[in-house]
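During the reporting period the student researcher (J.K.) took over the structure-prediction task from the postdoctoral fellow and processed the backlog of single-chain submissions. One of the processed entries is reproduced below for the supervisory committee.
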Amino acid sequence: MFTATLIADPSRANLDQATLDALCGAWGGGDARWLNPNVAAEFSCDTVPRNAAEAWEGLQGLGVDLVVQPSTGRRKKMLLADMDSTMIQQECIDELADVAGVGARVKEITARAMNGELDFEGALTERVGLLKGLPDSVIGEVIETRISFMPGGHDLLATMKANGAYCALVSGGFTAFTGHVAKTLGFDENRANTLLVSNGHLTGDVARPILGREAKVQALLEISDRLGIAHGDVMAVGDGANDLGMLELAGAGVALHAKPSVAAQCDIRINHGDLSALLYIQGYAVTDFA
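J.K. obtained the following structure tokens:
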């Protein structure tokens, strides 16, 4: 059996009964149920319909995401999440660069790196080099004034942890930021790169080894082995090219508002919903949120 989940942006709540009934009827689905009125709903079906891709495209035009996956094993035991543009709405290095007066140059490199056009390690060291001499006090200022959380993140962490899941934050960004995000949202652990500081100023370099795509895969392998769970029990979420390894290895790899080149390689794509979509596709209703 498979489960089809339809998800709209909670701020728009534009998923209507007619759209749900039309798809459920066309696919011969079982009784549909609302997970959150006008935001998310699901129904079961015997197979993945041949026109699933066409249905997904059509719903995109309505501002609705569609995920079809096996019904068994949907509820995961571990969450492995990227940070920048995933758990938070910004790219931390871009915000630091903006303060340093090199924002445009760094944002260009970031965009190309996340699209997979540049080697991640080289792109990171080049961008960090442009921050040389910036007072390290700026990090706290950026966290305080420029960083905002992705909607749905608090519900996602609280609900999965309340149901026994382990949550890890793994970022190609910096520990100064992941520590804050992990503490605020309740992650069990966090891994990221460390900005080097000397005499109260950034040196323009990071500690080695640099955490990138392979380190995220390694985190999934190490943590799941430590917990004694299968890779299929993991839900991973990210938006950039350096997330693809963990998204492909996890039982549910979610491309959240991802770069087009990344989304094209993922089966689960959330373009309209927020982080609460990761709960809906596991079968949680809004009344189940912790």
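The committee noted the following: The domain at 73-290 is CATH 3.40.50.1000 (Rossmann fold).
J.K. will present the remaining backlog at the next meeting.
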